[in-house]
Design brief:
The protein has 409 residues and is α+β, with helices and mostly antiparallel strands. It has 16 helices and eight strands.
């Protein structure tokens, strides 16, 4: 999977185009969400580019592969609920077995009760007449959301694109067939957080607490996530949409560059350690301006380095997820009685964008305070205490890598 790759292309001495793309779920809620004011209409298949400038299309390839399997009838995604019919009861029984095997911490009686409950709906991915994955949810039409109760794919079928395609089927089905459903809510444990965030889920929920709290069960040790279902996005056409976007972007890049023109490489002499940039074949033709060129060290400002470090911490979901949003004192009772000066990665990102961090010491102080707050409030044996240590260790490594010093406490 490719979460998010950034490609920085210099077209001339004063123009920079930063292209950020994503494969699989996260682009749905980010890039496509930003374009939601206008429906996207696609016709035909995207051409295969002669040059792949963007790279990182593993997730897109998996999604396309599952889509092709579906079109060829190798797999199907079936909407099922307990209507008493033999075929649907068989599929629900297979789904129950998948959930029991893949979600061992869930009580088996609880799984049976929800899967066969007539208020719940399921979408199963089926091959050779047998379900090997699925999502079970309950719609709350008057409140405008649906709660995802279970989501699992058999272990030997994971990391093949079925999970993303399955979630997109559920989103598409709810948009077309479930009245007034615009949000998904789900409780995810630490193992499921990465998957759900790839599918566009985030925390904390934007829905007011009174809209959902009376209707869904609170799970201890799990994180409540929310996903907005955008009515302008054709979720089942995301592979074509991404392929078209990549092809169009690549064609535009090729129009503005000499990418197809190949130059001889640099020949290093024995013992040579430096080279004049003018002697690099094709560099001047590509738009390099020797008069305005600066050293790499000058270009990499402190703000740029801090932003890269913050992005690295943020994108490491397995470590940073408890720190990506301010702690809600209404949900975490007594937090502000113990933590007098709260800070989190989201707030730090805002401070960075506003130019608050004038020195690396100011930035480091907030990171240290955030981890210290977590250790102060949470007992040593909790996962939060451990993640605070892990995040601080990752921060030290990134500071050292950026030649800013580890700043170890």
């Amino acid at each position: 999977r490719c979460d998010c790759d950034a490609l920085l292309l210099k077209f001339n001495s004063i123009s920079l185009l930063q292209i950020q793309h994503s494969c699989e779920g996260s682009i749905v809620q980010k890039s496509l969400g930003e374009m939601a004011s206008q429906p996207t209409i696609l016709v035909g298949e995207a051409p295969t580019p002669e040059f792949d400038l963007l790279g990182g299309a593993d997730g897109l390839s998996r999604d396309n592969a599952v889509k092709q399997q579906e079109e060829q009838g190798e797999v199907s995604f079936q909407f099922v609920y307990n209507d008493g019919s033999a075929n649907r009861m068989k599929t629900l029984l297979e789904l129950k077995n998948v959930f029991r095997k893949q979600l061992p911490s869930m009580p088996k009686e609880y799984i049976v009760r929800l899967v066969f409950d007539r208020n719940h709906r399921s979408i199963a991915v089926v091959r050779n007449g047998k379900a090997f994955g699925g999502i079970t949810y309950r719609p709350f039409h008057e409140q405008g959301f649906a709660e995802i109760a279970f989501c699992a794919v058999m272990r030997d079928q994971q990391v093949k694109g079925y999970g993303t395609r399955l979630m997109n089927h559920v989103k598409s089905h709810c948009l077309k067939n479930e009245r007034n459903i615009r949000y998904f809510l789900t409780y995810a444990d630490n193992f499921a957080l990465v998957y759900f965030k790839k599918q566009g889920f985030k925390q904390p929920p934007s829905l007011p607490r009174e809209a959902w709290a009376p209707f869904i069960k609170d799970y201890e040790g799990a994180t409540l996530l929310e996903c907005y279902i955008n009515p302008h996005v054709e979720y089942l056409r995301i592979p074509q949409m991404l392929a078209h976007q990549r092809a169009m972007l690549q064609d535009k890049v090729l129009e503005m560059t000499n990418q197809r023109e190949l130059h001889a490489g640099v020949r290093w002499q024995p013992g040579q350690t430096r080279i004049n940039p003018r002697d690099i074949p094709g560099l001047i033709q590509a738009g390099w301006d020797p008069e305005s060129a600066k050293s790499v060290g000058e270009l990499r400002t402190l703000e740029t380095q801090l932003r890269e470090i913050l992005d690295t911490l943020w994108n490491n979901d397995g470590v940073s997820w408890p720190f990506q949003a301010p702690v809600d004192p209404d949900q975490v009772i007594g937090y502000l009685d113990i933590v007098k000066d709260p800070i989190d990665l989201f707030t730090m990102r805002q401070k960075l964008e506003n130019g608050f961090y004038r020195t690396k010491e100011m930035f480091t102080a907030d990171i240290r305070r955030m981890c210290s707050n977590c250790r102060l409030f949470n007992p040593k044996e909790t996962v939060y205490f451990k993640l605070a240590n892990d995040l601080e260790n990752l921060f030290n490594k990134e500071m050292a890598r950026a030649s800013l010093g580890s700043s170890a406490a």
